[in-house]
Amino acid sequence: MGYENVVVFPQGDEYWADQGYKLWTIEDITEPDEAEVAEAEEAAEPSDIKEGEFPGSIDEDFFVELMETDPGSIRLIDVRDEDEFSRGHLPQAERMNVDEIRANMDEFDDEKPIVLICATGARSGEAYFTFQDQRPELDVYYLDANVSYGEDGSFEIE
Length: 158
Hints:
- 35% of the residues lie in helices and 12% in strands.
- The protein is α/β, with parallel strands linked by helices.
């Protein structure tokens, strides 16, 4: 899936939380609490992007239509590694993995909605939650789908 430098944190979740670090669980992405909802409503102006099943996800059919009709209306970021990207990617996508996004977080603006893509939705989801943690005022979405990319710039959602 492209993850690197993965380790087990031996002290566990409780110690991690005591240090002030954020824990992400399935509940965090399926049932936002009232404070998060209020913060999101105060954040960016809502875009015309149709949301998918999970908070922050973009609807798959809407994404396909958007790529066919108006791909320039979004900032498309492919979070896959260079090797995967070089084997096939959408022509309008810029490649930036999650670590690079973190390192350049201050350089993102609210000019266009940001849509994050990868091969399965896992890394784009991770990048989405990085934005939510560090820049919640931005209008960011991720494609939660298995996607294959052709060398010719085509793609298929499986």
